[in-house]
Design brief:
Layout (H helix, E strand, L loop, with lengths): L1 H51 L9 H5 L2 E7 L5 E2 L9 H6 L4 E3 L11 E3 L1 E8 L5 E11 L4 E9 L5 E8 L13 H4 L17 E3 L13 E3 L5 H15 L5 H9 L6
Parallel strand pairs: 9-10
Antiparallel strand pairs: 1-2, 1-5, 3-4, 5-6, 6-7, 7-8
Length: 262
Amino acid sequence: MSHEKDSIKNTVKVAAILCLVCSVVVSAAAVILRPTQQANAALDRKRNILEAGGLMEPGRSVDELFSKVEARVVDLETGEFVDVENPATYDQRGAAKNPSTSIAVPPEEDIASIRRRAKQASVYLARGQDGSLERIILPVHGYGLWSTMYAFLALEADTNTVVGLKFYEHGETPGLGGEVDNPLWQEQWPGKQVYDDNWQPAVQLAKGGVDPNSSMAKYSVDALSGASLTSNGITNLLQYWLSDRGFGTFLAKLRSEGGQNG
């Protein structure tokens, strides 16, 4: 009997030691790999920004191409640039969760279902060799059917013409809302207009497809087949972030200053 008790005790002891060793190894691996994971995440973010802005070039590295993109942080209320220590690493998502660096979005205004919005937001500017503004790339997000969808919207220097829309994180249904990743759908965006003649957000996804004879055709992209709620979510998130509650004041300031803000 004593032998059996000792055997059980030893088994438990060995199991406990193995669990401790494994936890130490996993923790150490997480610490060791964190810099690599962060570097990969930063590289992926740069790639998505470049792809949205139509700035990718064959044979050139992401870091080389991104060196021509200026990361800035803007105060969404005033539309003015603000100085932060490292704009490229500004954590807008983290800021949106902190009551001191964010605002609660009133339900009647929260068409994108984001609940809270950071007071300051990232923007990315691509300029030509002469310093003139060529692309404005904005991070936008909002709720679809199952998830918060995150994307980069790229505009021409006129602040109205779409260069591209690139979703880089979402949990929408594959084959339905997940078609935001389909290159054929993404190809519909370049050249579309986001504002009407009064500079009010007009961009939308059109249920049943875009009627080329409609006055809304230049603002419209085909809705996702079988994914009405995802399509509505995309319309809502774009219209929210293009309004004065989002980047609207900043974009208006850029227009008034001829793209020389900052």
